[in-house]
Records
---
Amino acid sequence: MRSKTIILLVALCCFSCFAEAKKGKPVRCGPSNIVCIEAIETNKGIRLYATSRRKYPRSVRFEFTKLKNLEEARHTKEHFVVQRSSRVRIARLKVKDQSRSWDYDFKIRSTYGDFAVRHNRHARYDLPFPVTAPVKVSQSCYGRFSHNRPGSKHAVDFQLEQGTPVIAARSGVVIELKDNSDKGGPHPKYRPHANYILIMHDDGTYAGYFHLKKGGSKVKRGRYVNQGEVIGYSGNTGYSSGPHLHFVVRKASIKNLTESVKIKFETKDGIVSCPKPGHFVNRMYGG
Ligand SMILES: [Zn+2]
């Protein structure tokens, strides 16, 4: 009797494993090609799943833009979080009239981290360069030139010579980087050409170090870096009016998808959140 129960349990488990492993047909990925949608079609309708190609959490916004001869058989998940180890079921569509053709389309956008993340207000950030001389702030929070979007409102630009070492302002894991571009200029069309390193902190927020020089990354994705460690070299790539480092801390947000957060830099002159543009900042310690 007991062995029969075990066989039955194993059979059920295998069946559910098999059902879980049933792969959907790839439909389309989001603009960054990290989160992708798969579909499983049956005679009853379509089930849509989201998958991710990254280890760390990705927050996703999903919306149908077209439903032809289809109806939502259960509530579609419009905001959700997906990780590489999981597959999230986001929608179930039912064919209304089996004798007619059906079609659907959707919009998908995703960002780094989890929507539920909260920035640790007590976290202290180093100025992101090991320069002991005063460094000029060329643009600060709410700067009109380019710090006017939700993801950059609390960003600070430090005027640094190309090739100046850049250090981790706070410890964390390198989640993304790009360092193969040598294009830059004072026009938004250069925005996609910025080299950068993104480091996720233990509270789930992440810091962005932008406009690095070509080949200017000293770290690899997945590597843990300590506060103060050199991670790369500054440059002038992307949307930039001159050599500088754009530094920003961000989190995922349901309202804006990505939002920058106000942080506290530790400087020689005390704690500073948004140093005044045109003014100079000093590191607390040399090195
Ligand atoms: Zn900037």
---
Amino acid sequence: MMTTTEQIPDAEVTPDATVPFNLALSEEQKEIRDWAHGFAADVIRPAGEEWDEREETPWPVIQEAAKIGLYGFEGTAQFFADPTGLLLPIVNEELFWGDAGIGMAIFGTTLAVASIFGQGTNEQIGEWIPRCFGSVDDPKVASFCVSEPDAGSDVSALRTRAKFDEKTNEWVLNGQKAWATNGGIADVHVIVASVDTELRSRGQAAFLVPFETKGISQGVKVKKHGIRASHTAEVLLDDVRIPAENVLGGKEKLDERLARAREGTKNKSQAAMATFEASRPTVGAQAVGIARAAYEYALEYSKEREQFGRKIIENQSIAFMLADMKMEIDCARLLVWRASWMGRTGQDFNNAEGSMSKLKAGEVAVWTTERAIQILGGNGYAREYPVERWHRDAKIYTIFEGTSEIQRLVISRAISGMHLS
Ligand SMILES: Cc1cc2nc3c(=O)[nH]c(=O)nc-3n(C[C@H](O)[C@H](O)[C@H](O)COP(=O)(O)OP(=O)(O)OC[C@H]3O[C@@H](n4cnc5c(N)ncnc54)[C@H](O)[C@@H]3O)c2cc1C
């Protein structure tokens, strides 16, 4: 019997309690899901192997996505606007079901967009978000740069500095960013930098840097284990000068926030963490997409492949593995949908539900794709079959946007109310 109401979101006390809990998707949601699935099946999946081998950004596929409105300001705004919060994870699951490397090439921009949308002024949203996507004829991508060589899990340790030059009314950025998705190929780089190092993460802010700015350049491009169609690189900042108004949220707000931090008043959120909190369920949905692809493939294979005169699914060991895969995927999706719904309806993640969804989905993706390889036997290990690629792709989901250990730390802190480390 449930003795407290802490475990369930209390809809009555939330700002938007009019959206009921309902697992039946609306007609519009189903239509958009099927449309995204069609693009994933017809365009993304067939291109997955080629772009994984090439290890390059699949610009022609991004352009195809732009042509049909899947990649762009309006499409993304529509996914974000769904009042249930489910449309964004639904579309992500479908695209990443097609291929995660290409999915990330298409959706990598969204992290930068989410930071602008979440922290920017109305003017910044209107000017910079369309710029992140470019146009149908000339699509662009954006990059959200937090991580550094010595600041991965520990975001408070950023060394990139932003100093304000009163004389020219400009910010001057110096530092080195690591692991940036779309770093160095993006039109817009959102750079999280420290304005006041003593305040640690509370002294950080996010800055809008167009790539044509003098002093910003791409460093080493990373050769990766998976999601190889998605570009990952260092971003170098050498006396990069940008106008005062390019700080997300505006300079006045930043000054107020810094003043509060110096007084010791608690701020609602820090620049990087605010973006990650909101994006974790969507990232979880991507992992669910990969897991589902592997499960479906393994299920079909097991119904066709015969050994010892019978289909391999007729062995309980294989059938039970598939049953567990299906159950774990559904479980991960439900956590993703819950967190997405909570985020969209303005509820606090009191038990780190966003982190829970990303943690579960990432681990399910790795676990499921590994089992899919097992079900395919030698073929699972061969490049002619897609499941080894999906397994490589899945692994990133226990690392980026907070490793599994960091998600557990966030959840532990939330449920205990203690500052565990
Ligand atoms: C393909 C790819 C794309 C990426 N895209 C981006 C991007 O677009 N923007 C961006 O800013 N970053 C990006 N990242 C960076 C990513 O977010 C970091 O790699 C991640 O946060 C982990 O940091 P790290 O690699 O420095 O590992 P570390 O922080 O060095 O962690 C190493 C190990 O130690 C563990 N660990 C660390 N601290 C603790 C602790 N307190 N308790 C328990 N265990 C701990 C970790 O869980 C991990 O297992 C990307 C990374 C990759 C690989």
